[in-house]
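User:
Hi there, any thoughts?
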Amino acid sequence: MELLKCDAVSKYYGSGNSKVIALKQVDLSVDKGEFIAITGASGSGKSTLMHIIGGVEKPSEGRVMIEDTDITAFNAEQSAIFRRRKVGLIYQFYNLIPTLNVRKNIMLPMLLDKRKPDMDYFEQIIEALGISDKLDCLPSQLSGGQQQRTAIARSLLYHPALILADEPTGNLDHHNSREIVELLKFSNRNLKQTILLITHDDKMAMEANRIINIEDGCIVSDKAVR
């Protein structure tokens, strides 16, 4: 079942001689339950595509459909609400609130939405991610790997339709990077999450089921891994 569709998505910055084309007529279809790696060199457009899919930016042309909803038609407030409810975002810088403990950081999107978390699912997630003994800790008391696990837990808690992970291991050592990739695979396989992983690491990309490569704002290859 198709979960995400990008239809002729383009993104431009500036105008005239200073116009920069970040994306050019990108068409993309993602089915529910897929684990896809999006690769490309720095400046290729992969992060711009993720921001547009996540509703953080609007395309200059084209549209993005998530669960048959045209998110490009939303205003800023509607985009924020949709993103909070339907899209899990994981960045390399964690984006945790330093004054909140792990428990509150994980629950924050649901609390902002005035929704009651499913505590059975909460327990399942923190056990799977190995942070059940860190719930009362502040982010400053955690290692980088533990902070990223907290960010992943936050993105999973409200059962988003789609998880977008932008270089999630960029600030981690090899051991922690390996663990984070395994956790993403776990969430895809066991929690049935659809994942788009943005990465420049070819070895990490090979852990996905499908690899999409972007060059100069265009998709140049799209192949199944296994």
The first helix runs from residue 46 to 53. Residues 35-50+81-224 form a domain with the Rossmann fold fold (CATH 3.40.50.300). The two ends are 19 Å apart (CA to CA).
